[in-house]
Amino acid sequence: MDIQGNPGSMDKAVVQLLCDIKDDDCHIRFAAARTLGDVGSFDPVAQDALLDALKDKIWFVRLAALQTLRDIKPEPAIVIDRITPMLKDDHEDVREYAALTIGDLGHEAAPAAIPLAEALSDSVWYVRSTVAWVLGEIGPGARDSCSRLISCLNDDDSQVRLNAVRSLGMITPIEDTDVLLALEELASDKNQAEEVREKAHKAISRVMKTGDKIN
């Protein structure tokens, strides 16, 4: 299908994909969801079709639509309203990708901070880890999640603990003694992995002394 340099052929391509994304075959819907990002990213009708595909009964079609929406970067309000609910999707990969898409908004994702904080109790470790990371990307607007991030310091997975520590270092105000005490306890716990203890020390330093993010 030649769509380059020919507006007419691009229109026809989008029209076909808009049909395909509603096809009975889930694999055709999947392919259409991914391809719409290439040929229809500036078409509001294509964006609406992708948003509708977020409700598809097949998880990998929902994921494909979500991936394409992340690529084309919808308005923040659309992300907050339509993608935040996907933090409760039935499939863990969709939940994780929803968190990543929200995290791309940075501080503009603050309205999603509470649902993200609730997602820290997800049953899948890599979803918890990604959510913990994203809360740090939001910055001070996610400060109400500090208590839940403290709970993550006891997570069974070290990557969840690392990302929780990182985010606490990025969003905690200096007057939050509960966070500082939790980080100090973690930093002095010789049963923790060295990387976790080191990150806790850096988080404490960031809260106490600097405005720099921990990388």
Structure description:
With 215 residues, the chain is mainly α. The chain has 2 domains: 1-74, Leucine-rich Repeat Variant (Alpha Horseshoe); 83-215, Leucine-rich Repeat Variant (Alpha Horseshoe), CATH 1.25.10. It has 12 helices and no strands. The longest helix has 16 residues, at 194-209. The termini are far apart.
Topology:
Blueprint: H1 7-20, H2 26-39, H3 44-53, H4 59-72, H5 76-83, H6 92-103, H7 113-118, H8 125-138, H9 146-152, H10 158-171, H11 177-187, H12 194-209
In short:
By secondary structure, this protein is mainly alpha-helical. It has helices at 7-20, 26-39, 44-53, 59-72, 76-83, 92-103, 113-118, 125-138, 146-152, 158-171, 177-187, 194-209. The protein folds into two domains: 1-74, Leucine-rich Repeat Variant, CATH 1.25.10.10; 83-215, Leucine-rich Repeat Variant.
